Amino acid sequence: MEQAADTDTVGRALVVIDMINTYDHEDAELLVPSVHRVVPVLAELIGRAREADVPVVYANDNFGLWRSHHGELVDTALARPHADLIEPIRPDDESLFVVKARHSVFYETPLAYLLGRLGVGHVVLTGQVTEQCILYSALDAHIRHLGVTVPRDAAASIHPHLEEAALEMMERNMGARITVAKDIDFARPHTGPEHAPGPSRAGHRPPPP
User: Fold this and answer.
1) Helices marked H in the chain — which ranges?
2) CB distance 128 to 156 below 8 Å
3) Most confident of the ranges 7-21, 164-178, 188-202
């Protein structure tokens, strides 16, 4: 019989969403400039997570290529014009990979089970896009009683005004910690929630009683 993971401490995982991308889809032209800004920040964050032995989980669409191994998905993306957005953040041999078909990384994927086996109680959501897949994934994490952190500079968006709305929704409604990548310390032991529900970003007023 399998033994349950030790959950005395709250483990963290870095989840990289949809960054293995061919950028030949609708809205790609609007998305690419944001991804260019995100990639260096995310690459550094992934490096720090690996150094701290924090699990790095890539959750990615498969572009409808249901017979493809995740390595083939990476190779497909690297063969397209925006390979420079893939190479700095590509999975290494220790990375975990989950294929998803819809917006949320949890929808009909084994991610929740995997996180449970790893003793993870808090996810750091990164990748693309803030107002779609990251938002829906944060909600699904919240209803599964997982803590959520979103480093806004490691998450790309298509529409800036919807990005701001999504960040506020995650913070207010899901108790997510909205921060920047440099303020995430993977080396620090994590023994509980990093953020209680409620606003913390400058300029956001608390909801009325």
Assistant:
1) 28-51, 70-78, 111-117, 135-143, 160-174
2) yes
3) 164-178
Across 50-69, average pLDDT: 81
21, burial (CB in 10 Å: exposed 0-12, middle 13-18, buried 19+) = buried
Rounded to whole angstroms, the Cα distance separating 126 from 85 reads 14
Structural domains in the chain, CATH included, are: 11-183 (3.40.50.850)
Q: How far apart are CA 140 and CA 207, in angstroms?
A: 22
Q: Quick one: DSSP state of residue 169?
A: H
Structure tokens at 205: 């007023």
60: left (phi over 0), alpha (psi -120 to 50) or beta: beta
Specify the pTM. 0.85
